[in-house]
Design goal:
This protein has 208 residues and is an all-alpha fold. The protein has one domain: Up-down Bundle (Four Helix Bundle (Hemerythrin (Met), subunit A)). The protein is globular. The two termini are 15 Å apart. The relative contact order is 0.13. The N terminus is likely disordered.
Length: 208
């Protein structure tokens, strides 16, 4: 739903304190990016580091859900959060996608499509933000969830699954199936939500 009136961006009177828990979680997510990259690079020689990289990525991704919920619930939405939050998300998922594509775990065209979409929509978001804020849609949330699911599944060390005493072949098959389904959803939703956001942005600009 597009707001009827412009969002009061840049109005310090209406803004919550910049130093608050949601923004701290956003900064924590940013700090997790280099930690994740270091762990992922080390995972080439260590299954333990592979699991560590997966856990750090998942934990960082979950902070996006928590900080958004807290910001809305406690009235702690800030201009800083509106800018830093999507940047932190894109850096986290983008770094993971690039790293996995370098290793051939995810096709480059998928990574390029997703990152190009995110860069374009982020730029568009900044362009229209002074005229209004378009809330995250269910499709956008599903897109993010599918991307995270795919990345988390890909990051699971396959070697540890093959060594599992509990039907290792089934676990490897399940991992592959989850990755493929999540990536298909991510690609479809990446395109659909981009078209939807562009349409809503045009409507918002016509109203102002």
């Amino acid at each position: 739903m597009i707001p009827a009136k412009p969002d009061p961006v840049g109005d310090p009177i209406n803004e919550a304190p910049v130093v608050n828990l949601p923004n701290v979680l956003t900064l924590l997510r940013l700090l997790c990016v280099p930690v994740f990259i270091a762990l992922y690079m080390a995972s080439h020689d260590s299954i333990v580091m592979g699991w560590a990289a997966d856990i750090v990525f998942l934990a960082a991704a979950l902070t996006d859900i928590v900080d958004g919920h807290l910001a809305r619930r406690d009235g702690l939405v800030t201009n800083f959060g509106k800018i830093a939050d999507p940047i932190a998300d894109k850096l986290l998922t983008g770094s993971a996608l690039i790293a996995l594509s370098i290793d051939g775990a995810i096709a480059w065209w998928i990574t390029i499509l997703i990152i190009s979409r995110e860069v374009f929509i982020t730029a568009l978001r900044f362009y229209v933000i002074r005229r209004g804020v378009i809330p995250a849609s269910r499709g956008g949330k599903a897109k993010t969830a599918s991307q995270i699911t795919a990345i988390v599944a890909v990051l699971i060390p396959t070697a540890s699954l093959k060594a599992s005493p509990v039907v290792p072949d089934f676990l490897v098959w399940l991992q592959t199936a989850v990755v493929n389904v999540a990536l298909v959803l991510a690609v479809v939703l990446t395109v659909v939500t981009a078209i939807d956001y562009i349409a809503k942005s045009r409507a918002l600009l016509r109203q102002s």
